[in-house]
Amino acid sequence: MAAKTKDYYEVLGVKRGASDDEIKKAYRKLARKFHPDLNPGDKSAEEQFKRLQEAYDVLSEAEDRKLYDQYGDNWRAVKAGAGVPPPGWEGAGRTTAGAGGPPPGGFDFGDFDFSGFQGAGGFDFGDLFGRAGRSAGTRGRRSSRGQDVEAELELSLEEAHRGGRRTLQMQVAEVCPTCNGAGIKDNQPCPTCGGAGQVLRPKTIEVNIPAGVREGSTIRLAGQGGAGLNGTQPGDLYLHIRLRPHQVFTVRGDDLEVEWPIAPWEAALGAKVEAPTIDGKVELKVPPGAQSGQRLRLRGQGLNKRKGGRGDEYARLKVVLPKEISDEERRLFEELKRVSRFDPRKGK
User: CA 229, CA 11: separation in Å to the nearest integer?
Assistant: First the structure.
């Protein structure tokens, strides 16, 4: 009996007439849900992730989607030039990639943002492709330019503020030397790339991080994406910036905020105290009668802006009482209690 045709639309949870944008959104939502990194040891999630990859590979390519809509599971054989199969024909002509999960060397990482690729001086994609990469059995054989690749680059707040150069150690796609990108060798899936037409090779990339990049901004590296087949130009690499949480500062657009403790007498009498900024400590003037939660502005001590200038820093004061006091301090507090007319609950 013929095997049941896979319904890629059902796998992604979209209607058959869904737009490209709807398909991409559905894939990204489900891929994040079932990603192996978020479900360690969960085999069912891993299998579901592979099914999502396969479905998206097909439906995100206009030509492949059209063939799939017309011929179902037999679309691969039709694309390969085998002609329209007879009724009941199933399975012939599929590469390992089409049978669920990436083949050895097979991958496609252009539409999913991976994070946490940190290592000495940069990050490394290679280990993730082995367990969570997506098959390129269909997309890798395009005769157009190479794939654009998207990834997340995690920076410290200081790196984003100051910019600079960063060396990234990456695994990039190159045309398979055995099959020259065809994916087929001696009428069989290529043993080197598993039918993908591409293989991974280590590559060192220098990235110039401009000062003032923000969370969610993108750095484009032209020609650093997937290799182009048949002599076409390679794709581009898009690095989406993610900032690590800072131990001291909270980011508010171009501004920074810091909670800074002061003593009760500094709040009552006013004081000059040292406060941190992203470039070092500065003097902060606390006015007499300062209150907990009050914000003091440090003009121009925020983050660098891409087009010049800087944001501000706001020090949010926190009046802190000593947990232990000496006998003399106790005597002074008792004296203050005796002479003071201040009632913090008056009018409450």
Answer: 30
51 or 85, higher pLDDT? 51
Distinct helix (H) and strand (E) counts, the chain = 9, 13
Half-sphere exposure of residue 251: CA atoms within 13 angstroms, side-chain side: 20
pLDDT at position 113 over 90: no
Q: Answer yes or no: is pLDDT of 133 > 90.
A: no
Name the DSSP class of 140. Answer: G
Q: Would you call 337 helix, strand, or coil by DSSP?
A: helix
Residue-wise over 290-315: b if at least 16 C-beta within 10 A, else e? Answer: beeebebebeebbbbeeeeebbbbbb
Name the token pair of 82: 């085998």
Q: What residues are paired with 272 via a beta bridge?
A: 285
The DSSP string of 284-333 is: EEEPTT--TT-EEEETT-SPBPTTS-B--EEEEEEE---SS--HHHHHHH
pLDDT value at residue 96:
28
DSSP state, 74?
Answer: G
| Cα 68 versus chain centre, distance | 31
Give CA–CA dist 27/244, Å, rounded: 26
| % the chain with pLDDT above 70 | 78
Residues 6 or more apart whose CB falls under 8 angstroms from that of 32 comprise 38
The predicted model gives 19-27 an average pLDDT of 90
Which residues sit opposite 202 in a β-bridge?
171
Q: What is the mean pLDDT of residues 206-234?
A: 85
262/285 Cα distance (integer angstroms): 11
Average pLDDT over residues 219-236: 81
Q: How far is it, in rounded angstroms, from Cα 282 to Cα 292? A: 20
